[in-house]
Amino acid sequence: MLAIIIPYYKITFFGETLESLANQTEKRFKVYIGDDAGPENPANLLEKYKNKFDFVYHRFDNNLGGVSLTQQWERCITLSGNEEWIMILGDDDVLGENVVEEFYKNLPEIERESINVIRYATQVIDEKARVNSEIYFHPIKEKSTDFLFKKMKNQTRSSLSEYLFRRENFKKYEFYDFPLGWHSDDMAFLLLSNFSIIYTINFATIKIRISNISISGKLDNIYLKNKATQLFYYTISDNYISYFTKKQRIKLIEKVEVNFFRQKSVFLFFKITRWHLRKTDLFNFFKFIRRIYINS
After folding, report:
1. Which InterPro entries match (predicted)?
2. In this structure, what are the phi and psi dihedrals at residue 107, rounded to the nearest 5 degrees?
3. Which of 89, 139, 232, 280 has the most CB atoms within 10 Å of its CB?
4. Do the Cβ atoms of 192 and 90 come closer than 8 Å?
5. For the chain, what are the domain ranges?
6. Can you name the residues that pair with 120 across neighbouring β-strands?
7. How far from 85 is each of 1, 2, 49, 139, CA to CA, in Å?
8. What residues contact 185, with CB distance under 8 A and at least 6 apart?
9. CA-wise closest residue to 239 among 247, 229, 249
């Protein structure tokens, strides 16, 4: 069965999220709502959906998302039962009516292929539910490392709400606690797929809301987003670079180099040197040294 987990905080768009759950053509799912001590109690709103789908609501005593968004995601997951598959749905995102139905239609093939991560086609909407993008489709089977590089080149997009993770595999890892949870979803699809295949369901769409009250849409958190981006590429380069092709490794290290040239960090110099000598080649190491000389 499928667990849909909602880390709740704001009520502004929550009604649209709940309505999309009530409209599912397949009802084999259970919703777990973890209220992060939000300022607006959703009790009256939830009452309207009491008999429309199966859900559990729990209000936490303290706000955790303001300190660590990923820890809020994780404690919401602990509310769930033993469902085999987990979706972490934003409290402002909207499921197409056939999202759950398509999951069960594709499940036999997913099980045959031993897939651990599933994603859906997506479309971006704004605060008035106006469509702001094309529908983002993906190859049915795509290596997660290749997908990351498409995203790095701005050829595609993704966010946490569009993924399903197998619970058994999820137990092996925790979310990387990057600031604002920025790139924590990217690390999740890499780790939980074992740096292997993501299976895409393109016949159902999830609408991802980007507004002036969402982390993605806000403009006053650029510093933290940049810090998270630096940590993300450093973490991959230092711990998981072997899963990538040589060409991809070079590009990942170049992402960390940007931070090195800002900070002139001796620590980063030795790290980047080590990565090149062990994971690329002498030629790319000397290109790095040359860039230092040019920028000095």
Report:
1. Glyco_trans_2-like, Nucleotide-diphossugar_trans
2. -60, -40
3. 89
4. no
5. 2-209, 222-295
6. 201
7. 7, 5, 23, 21
8. 158, 159, 160, 163
9. 249
pTM for the structure as a whole: 0.94
Cα–Cα distance measured from residue 166 to residue 173, given in angstroms and rounded to the nearest whole number: 12
Beta bridge partners, 201, equal: 120
Q: How far apart are CA 187 and CA 55, in angstroms?
A: 28
200-215 tens-digit pLDDT: 999 999 999 997 766 6
Q: Smallest Cα–Cα separation from 89: which of 28, 148, 13, 142?
A: 13
- The encoded tokens of residue 211 equal 């507004």
Quote the pLDDT of residue 218.
Answer: 61
Quote the CA–CA distance of 159 and 43 in Å, as a whole number. Answer: 27
CA 64, CA 73: separation in Å to the nearest integer?
9
pLDDT class of 295 with cuts at 50, 70, 90: confident
**Cα–Cα distance list, 176 to 9, 74, 164, 173, 188 (Å):** 21, 11, 17, 9, 8
What CATH number should be reported for the domain whose range is 2-209? 3.90.550.10
